[in-house]
Design goal:
Layout (H helix, E strand, L loop, with lengths): L1 H4 L11 E5 L3 H14 L18 H17 L1 E4 L3 E2 L4 E2 L2 E4 L6 H4 L6 E7 L2 H9 L3 E2 L1 E4 L4 H8 L6 E4 L11 E2 L1 E2 L5 E2 L1 H6 L17
Parallel strand pairs: 1-6, 5-6, 8-9
Antiparallel strand pairs: 2-5, 3-4, 7-11, 10-12
Length: 208
């Protein structure tokens, strides 16, 4: 939950869409809705506050527009409310929604997340990889070996298992597809500031 809504969903590598297998779909929707409904949104100076406002008025208006669209595309199971003064939005979750609308396909940069149902792992991987973006992904499972195998199939610059956001200076970080070119951090990141040069020595003293 925190990996999706940290900084009120305004983090480039936060979880944007949540794929849940059909046999646990309703249970997962219910548990995530419970967390969203109990989340404390408000003044950052209040020690009980968990989530602050959207960053600016323009983005706040864009998020409000998406909130108005949400009931037409899915089932709003938590949140759906924005208020002022300030640019506050309750963490919002949508179930019974699929790809093909901007609530799922676009990077919202606000506290709205979609929970999508899948039947097989192959289906989930195919649908996730159909996105034009590929910054980060995570796989959550009790079967670690299987989760690692699934993570390696995802077209994302970073793929985590049973966690999200884990970063360190020695681990390369970057995206694929429309999520960026190259990496930062690690030796690979330093290599971005270099270029390859070929120096070719003639086998004989001179060559034509």
């Amino acid at each position: 939950f925190a990996s999706a809504f940290v900084n009120s969903g305004q983090v480039c590598m936060s979880i944007k869409r949540i794929y849940v297998q059909s046999n646990i779909y309703e249970e997962m929707c219910g548990e995530l809705a419970r967390l969203a409904d109990s989340a404390k949104v408000g003044d950052g100076q209040d020690p009980e506050t968990q989530f602050g406002p959207v960053q600016n008025r323009r983005q706040f208006e864009a998020v409000k527009e998406l909130l108005e669209e949400a009931p037409r595309h899915g089932r709003v199971i938590a949140g759906g409310r924005a208020w002022g003064p300030g640019y506050f939005v309750q963490p919002t979750l949508l179930c019974d929604i699929t790809e093909g609308n901007r609530l799922v396909d676009e990077e919202i940069f606000g506290p709205i997340r979609s929970i999508l149902k899948f039947e097989s792992v192959d289906e989930a991987v195919q649908r996730a990889n159909a996105s034009p973006y590929g910054l980060g992904a995570s796989v959550w499972s009790q079967n670690i070996e299987r989760a690692v195998a699934i993570a390696s199939r995802l077209e994302a610059g970073s793929a985590w298992v049973n966690q999200h956001f884990a970063m360190a200076p020695h681990i390369p970080f970057g995206g694929v597809k429309q999520s960026g070119v190259g990496v930062e951090f690690s030796r690979e990141g330093l290599n971005e500031y270099t270029y390859a040069q070929s120096v070719v020595l003639a086998k004989n003293a001179f060559a034509a």
